[in-house]
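Assess this one:

_____
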Amino acid sequence: MIEARDFVEHARDFGYNRYAGVPCSFLTPFIDYAIADDNLVYVSSANEGDAVATCAGAFLGGHRAIAMMQNSGLGNAVNPLVSLAHAFCIPMLLIVTLRGDPELDDEPQHQLMGGMTSGLLESMQIPWEYFPTDTSCIEETLRRAEAHMSDTMRPYALVMRKGSVARSDSTQRNKLRYDRDQKARIGGAHKLTSRLTRAKVLQRVVEMTAQPNTVVIATTGYTGRELYALSDRPNHLYMVGSMGCASSLGLGLAMARPDLRVVVIDGDGAALMRMGNFATLGAYGGGNLVHILLDNEAHDSTGAQATVSNNVSFAGIARACGYPIALEDDNLSILDHLLGGTDRIGPRFGCLKIRTGTLEDLPRPTSSPAEVRARFMAHVGAPPTPSTKPA
């Protein structure tokens, strides 16, 4: 294992002074270190493809940049990697974390990607090697990457396994927390500590969604895990992976089953990743769809790295995209308006500002995603395997 400082300082010697990416818990030491150094630039990208494009733009401006991402998000980066970086001959260093490592146990949503990460990189003609875990190997690794990028003007990838990098020192996390809190106060925003907890909001949602015809879809990360911890019910679907897709999943279900009230619990990082979903839901969503976004201005489950949501009015976006009801507050009463009304004029949206942090000893669902799906479908009365034959 190496420290973040070891790699970043060697990379700086090779001209790398800019980073862009989407957080993964494996990457937290890098992100903390980059944010804490005033001579480095870190861009918190909405999705992995945007990180690649941002690094490509840095190259056009004469800077060298590193795109960082979890392998589960590598799929989001395929198009800009092959049609931008490859087509325009733009070199960049990629750090891709290996969730679902075939040699380790991991969560079910990572298993398939863990086995196909190397093949996916190779199919994009991106050579790769494992991220160095010994300080003495860092310079040699960077020289190999440099040789490839100089010869081909194309990307090179380092695949990071669990436990490759340690935090350099405790001050990095403290400065990150301080910077994020300061950003949260811009424009008169409330201090993070004065906000509601996620658990308190979810508990109220649980109390208001007990009806047989109401279902709750929770976005990936702490939201789904906390909902499970508070009340594991057949009308709950806990997203694992598929970051940003909870609202589109909810739309598909709400359109297919207008007899159901579909409540989607989203997060700021997830909403930013696929913000185009707002326009789609505004155009197609019906009165049976309720979209609730819990905004703590952080990627909480990967280390609480800041998102850019302190600059965003999600309710304003929802209104502009056609939601007839779009509210924003830090008070639980917003749920009464979203879940207590009876009008069916179109999809409802509400954004609640919450604090970071989660329940102690937060469990993960013990049922597999497929088992949760089967239980959910049985609850709503859907056939376990929808027929494709004409009636």
About this structure: DSSP finds 15 helices and 16 strands in the chain.
